[in-house]
């Protein structure tokens, strides 16, 4: 999709943008990274498991999903629905006081 704000050119990302990072399993040195990136001219949302090596460097694993950024609203809606259901079932606490 072109963007009229930049002369009709498709928006691009010069480098991946890390959105969030948190431990999935600290004992196994696995963390979950959420980022925005670009591949072959397509902007992506990437949710991936990384493994921390003995050298302290996080490296991506094949475990995860990358999809078109256009799917981000659907993904957010699904995640929010899962959170609502989990709160309703008492599986996680609500942030509300």
Give me some keywords for this one.
four-stranded antiparallel β-sheet; alpha+beta; flat; 4 strands; 97 residues; 1 helix
* Percentage of residues assigned to helices: 10-25%
The value of Rg in angstroms is: 17 Å
CATH topological fold name = Transcriptional Co-activator pc4, Chain A
Q: What's the end-to-end separation, in Å?
A: 42 Å
Structural class: alpha+beta
CATH architecture: Roll
Under the CATH scheme, which class? Answer: Mainly Beta
Strand content: 35-45%
At the fourth CATH level, what is the homologous superfamily?
A: Transcriptional Coactivator Pc4, Chain A
Main sheet: strands, sense, barrel: 4 strands, antiparallel
Overall mean confidence score, pLDDT:
89
Q: Spatial order of the strands in the main sheet?
A: 1-2-3-4
Tally of contiguous helical segments: 1
Low-confidence stretches: none
Number of strands: 4
Tell me the domain tally: 1
């Amino acid at each position: 999709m072109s963007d009229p704000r930049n002369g009709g050119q498709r928006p691009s990302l010069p480098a991946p943008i890390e959105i969030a990072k948190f431990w999935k399993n600290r004992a196994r040195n696995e963390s979950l990274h959420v980022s925005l990136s670009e591949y072959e001219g397509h902007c992506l949302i990437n949710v991936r498991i990384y493994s921390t090596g003995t050298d302290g460097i996080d490296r991506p694993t094949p475990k995860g999903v990358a999809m078109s950024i256009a799917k981000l609203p659907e993904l957010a809606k699904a995640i929010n629905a899962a959170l609502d259901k989990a709160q309703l079932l008492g599986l996680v606490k609500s942030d509300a006081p």
